[in-house]
Amino acid sequence: DQSVPVPIDSSLKITMKRFDMSEAMGAVGVDPSQGMRLAAVVNIEQNGVATEQKLYSLLKMDKGAMNFEPEWFTVPNSTTQIGLARVVRDQQNPEKSQAMFVFKDATKPLPKNRDIFTVEVSIKPYINLVWFGVIAMVLGFAISIARHRDELRRKRNHRTSPDVIKPIVLKSEKVVAE
What we know:
- The chain is α+β, with helices and mostly antiparallel strands.
- The protein is built from one helix and eight strands; from the N terminus they run ββββββββα.
């Protein structure tokens, strides 16, 4: 077991002991359809005194992605809060699974999420050739449509003009039998 100092409070050390999945599916006060409640058992050492504590996180599945929501634990006689942020399971050897913890000072507000809008501006030197090709294709299409329409008009006029339509007179000959 490796003790690690808490980054925001040097008087605290945290040691990961094990995972406790006994409340994973039937968590008290948690609807199973809302997620699974995972726990990590840790030792929190404060001024040489160690206490065992369970840190919880609610695992929710959202569109195939796993989202962990830590349940914040406030260390007694301190403003430091600790949360279980993620469990990284080792499929081959569950004993080697890892936990990621997050820390915050209860007296300081969390920074607000900022919306970020990113724009990338770049210069493409040969883009003019692409535009030239697009314009050439559109002009070619327009010319072919105009020619096709003219040909259809000529054929229609050719069929209906009086010069082209000549009446055919058929005379019947009577054959008289003798």
